[in-house]
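Human:
I keep going back and forth on a fold encoding question. Comparing notes only helps if you start from a blank page. Show me how you would write down a chain together with its backbone fold. Write it directly below this note and I will take it from there.

Assistant:
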Amino acid sequence: MKTHATALPSIVANALSDDNIDYSNWHHAFFSSSPSFIEHATFKDLVYPGTHDSGAYGSALLTHTADDKPFPMALPYLGSKGVEKLRNAVQGVTRMQESDVTSQLELGARYLDLRFATPKGREEGELWLTHAFAYNPAEEVLKGIGAFVKDHAGEIFVFLCRNAYPQNTQTHHITSLVLKHLGAYTHPNLHQNSTYASLSHMLSTNQRVVLAWETVPSVPYDNEVSEVVEDNRWWRAEQLFSWTWLPNNGDWEPRTSHMVTHARTWEHQYGQWNPRVDSHIHSELDEEEEGEKERSLRNGKKILIWSHQISYLGSRAIPAQLMPWSNGRTFRELARGYNNLFPQHFPSSEREAARHEEMKETLLPVPEDVRDNIGIIHVDFHNEVYKDLMAFTISSNKRRMKAILSEKRLSGPYE
């Protein structure tokens, strides 16, 4: 049985404390100095920085992706100024990012929220990344993601995919296009065995992408097409994730309180993140008996997603932008205020957390017990908050690395 030092490797600590860190390869910097860690941890043990509605950037098509929306019919009657005003209103409450997906990845994001749809009136199979309205051609976006994954061989990714409007979009078109660009890198779904490959195995086999499929509420997962249900390159989002989410209009204090309550409920239901692995879901590798069998880890917990995002009903938000007497605020304006609070919500060190509490600031940090369980944080307008997001993410991963190494966790065989 191998033993491991409990101290965090100093090389890793130094590499990830530099203000000039290369965020495009931060996993590689994190993993490279600790072979023991990547042998004894799974992708579910990492903390991932991510983006919400990752493909909703640039200029929106004024073609709604659902069948029952009137925008296309109204356009001929608005004139150029009316169309531009409508476009600004639509983008004010549906555009959630300012940088493209490749830039998000370069700035450290390792979780992407990708929503696909065929815009009304377009040919079957023509897919766009959407947030109520179509923003970017899916082929172009996925090509960029695939190139980034290929060129950054030391990075692990989790991509959440969804058919945003199944009433006019065929799921098999989405799965085919995603696998065309990312299929070579997918990590097979081992959830049915509660068995997960080590990070070391994922890196050595180049199976570094976890593809999760999320169904819309109107479509039960088992009713999805066989391309999803029967293909082990897809993971079921409901089996992997638990979300903290609540619609809001900028009133962050009650929203945060609700999300903390939800996260603690999640802990009660599924168990908190813990470097220890119970014996009934974990077995040691008997090298003499198992020989060269692939090493894997077993961990049945879900990944808690903290949604540091803007959510507001479009039926209210768009009219608020259009009416001349309204002072409706755009998501961009709301997000700026929320993102400014990120360092208070998620201090990157215990010293910072203590400082906030001593100053009796209105918005105290998210409680430590909740912060320690968060596996993914996704944000709006990632370009303006990525440094704070990365500071918290890296500090959280350092704590998890230290905990796992101190437990001398061993990996077990596939089943």
